[in-house]
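Ticket opened by: R.M.
Priority: normal
Category: complex prediction / small molecule

The reporter submitted a protein together with pyridoxal-5'-phosphate and asked that the result be attached to this ticket for the collaborator who will pick it up next week. Submitted input follows.
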Amino acid sequence: MSDLFLPPFLDRRASELHMESTPLAAIAKKFGTPCYAYSSSAITEAYEEFRRAFSTRPALICYAVKANGNLSILRLLSRLGAGFDIVSAGELHRVLRAGGLASRIVFSGVGKSCDDMAYALKAGVRCFNVESEPELRRLSDIAQSLGVTAPVSLRVNPDVDPKTHPYIATGLKESKFGIAHDGALDLYLEAARLPGLKVTGIDCHIGSQITELSPFLSALDRILLLVERLKNQGIQLGHLDLGGGLGIRYRHEQPISLAEYAREICSRLDHFDGELILEPGRRLVGNSGVLLTRVEYIKRTPGRSFAIVDAAMNDLVRPALYDAWHEILPVCSPATTGPSELFDVVGPVCETGDILGRDRTLALAQGDLLCILSAGAYAASMGSNYNARPRPPEVLVEGNETRLIRRRETLDELSDLEWPID
Ligand SMILES: *Cc1c(COP(=O)(O)O)cnc(C)c1O
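Result attached by the on-call engineer:
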């Protein structure tokens, strides 16, 4: 595999990086930096790839909103036919505001509050992915008090190792997520007895940024065992939700082929009549986005050289949080005539961990524009205002057109919800 990876819909023309047919430098000029830019075609293509791969059977692709919840991205995916996987009332509100259909929403998460449940029941979501016995009881009570029936599936923990970063492995026995495989049958029987519930499916989600097929297939095999046992107990499931977790290429990773993933999954589902649900997040949007940032200063210390840029860990926390790698490229190349050297690309935030890229070989000068790749998922959505930094704007690129889909926060907005005491 070649060393430098350029995601789809990004390429260098006449020494300048373009997203679709738009020069990234033009986006920086128009909207300022730091700034997120997403390729509409990249998102559409990624969704269509799923749809094609699973066209042979009933399947619903529920985009995991937490990867990137921008209303325009939700609208784009909703128009393509996607459903949504949500983990909070806030995400439900976003999907509804974007025009998404409640009947295509599955509600995941270990800590659903009473208010979350009531809101989702009134909206009419397709299914609650329930993760514990007390949650099951609470959901039944609330549904009853509202005079409705809650559609449920249990999130079962297949106890397989997804071979990913420990912070994003969610399907192991010791994880806070899901219900132990061994206890799932009893809990299903209880769910079937509870008056406010209707058992409709089964669910699992084993982790994120997974680049091997085998953990998915082991998980599915374990789930299918349960499906069979449930059938013997008279519980017939309408859907099987295999969660998300498909990894993408950031650097040297070799992502799973979607066609192969689909083929292997579908071949195991020959005897399952229900609908297949998937909850991809990163794979749909991760490589659609970049974060544009400008070099404020070059600072050379006796031990290291730093490129201090105007984006920071509050904008993109993955390197600080997971030690994640994001490729960093000059937008115009060669940016300067000087020699390449080793830089730590860091932000202005007052934390030693405020690093966007360590030990990058770059030729840089003050004022240069940089592009941080693979910043479409778990990037803007994990952004914060730490150090009282306004969150950056987000721009959607369609061919040679750009649309502002979130404007930059103002300094006033950073303290608008507060007031000084008398
Ligand atoms: C985060 C999450 C997803 C999406 O994971 P990706 O790795 O982005 O595909 C899907 N389902 C659940 C329950 C999640 O928590």
